[in-house]
C-alpha cells in the first residue's frame, strides 16, 4: 500500500507538471487511458506477481490525478465564478464512485467468482471518460475568457 501512495505522489506531481505545459484535456485523457493498461495486465494474467506489481504501479501513478484534472479543467472551461459548485458536484460524483466501486466489485466477484467483469467495466468507463476528454475543445486561455465576457456584455 505504501508503494502505491509513493507512486500516487509522483503521479499527482507529474500530472500538475504536465497540466502546466500541455493542453489539459489531452493530459486528462491520457491519465484516464493509462489505467486501462493495468486492467489489461490483470485480465491477461492476474495471478502473475509481475502483472500485479506493474498494475499496482500504474494504478498508483494515476490515482489522484483525476482530481487534479477535474479541478484544472473546471477552472479553465467554466471560470472561477461557478468553480465551487461545479467542482463540488464533480468531486461528489467521484467520491460516490470511490465509495460504491468496491461494493460493486465485491458484488460482481460474489456473482461471477472473478474480478474480470469489474476490470472490464473499469476499462470501458475509463475509455469512455478518455474519449469525452479528447473531444473537448482546446483549453480556453485567459484571453479567450476575457473575449467571451466582453462579447456577453456587448450583447
Task: Write a short abstract of this structure.
By secondary structure, the protein is an all-alpha fold.
Please supply descriptive tags for the structure shown above:
single chain; 155 residues; mainly alpha; 7 helices
N- and C-termini, Cα separation: 55 Å
Largest beta-sheet details: none
Structural class: mainly alpha
Total helix count? 7
Rg over C-alpha atoms, rounded to the nearest angstrom: 18 Å
Q: List SSEs in N-to-C order.
A: HHHHHHH
Strand content: under 5%
Shape by Cα distribution = elongated
Helix content: over 70%
Oligomer: single chain
Average residue pLDDT? 90
Q: Which residues sit in consecutive blocks of at least 5 with pLDDT less than 50?
A: none
What's the total count of β strands? 0
Structure notes:
The chain has 155 residues and is mainly α. The chain contains seven helices and no strands. The longest helix has 30 residues, at 83-112. The model has no long low-confidence stretch (mean pLDDT 90).
List the helices and strands and how they pair.
Layout: H1 2-21, H2 24-45, H3 49-62, H4 65-78, H5 83-112, H6 116-134, H7 142-154
Amino acid at each position: 500500500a505504501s508503494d502505491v501512495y509513493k507512486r500516487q505522489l509522483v503521479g499527482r506531481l507529474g500530472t500538475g507538471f504536465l497540466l502546466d505545459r500541455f493542453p489539459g484535456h489531452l493530459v486528462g485523457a491520457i491519465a484516464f487511458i493509462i489505467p486501462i493498461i493495468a486492467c489489461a495486465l490483470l485480465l491477461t494474467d492476474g495471478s502473475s506477481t509481475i502483472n500485479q506489481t506493474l498494475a499496482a504501479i500504474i494504478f498508483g501513478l494515476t490515482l489522484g490525478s483525476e482530481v487534479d484534472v477535474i479541478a484544472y479543467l473546471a477552472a479553465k472551461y467554466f471560470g472561477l465564478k461557478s468553480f465551487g459548485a461545479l467542482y463540488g458536484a464533480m468531486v461528489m460524483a467521484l467520491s460516490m464512485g470511490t465509495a460504491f466501486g468496491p461494493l460493486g466489485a465485491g458484488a460482481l466477484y460474489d456473482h461471477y467468482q472473478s474480478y474480470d467483469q469489474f476490470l472490464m467495466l473499469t476499462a470501458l468507463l475509463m475509455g469512455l471518460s478518455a474519449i469525452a476528454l479528447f473531444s473537448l475543445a482546446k483549453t480556453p486561455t485567459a484571453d479567450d475568457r476575457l473575449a467571451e465576457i466582453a462579447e456577453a456584455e456587448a450583447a
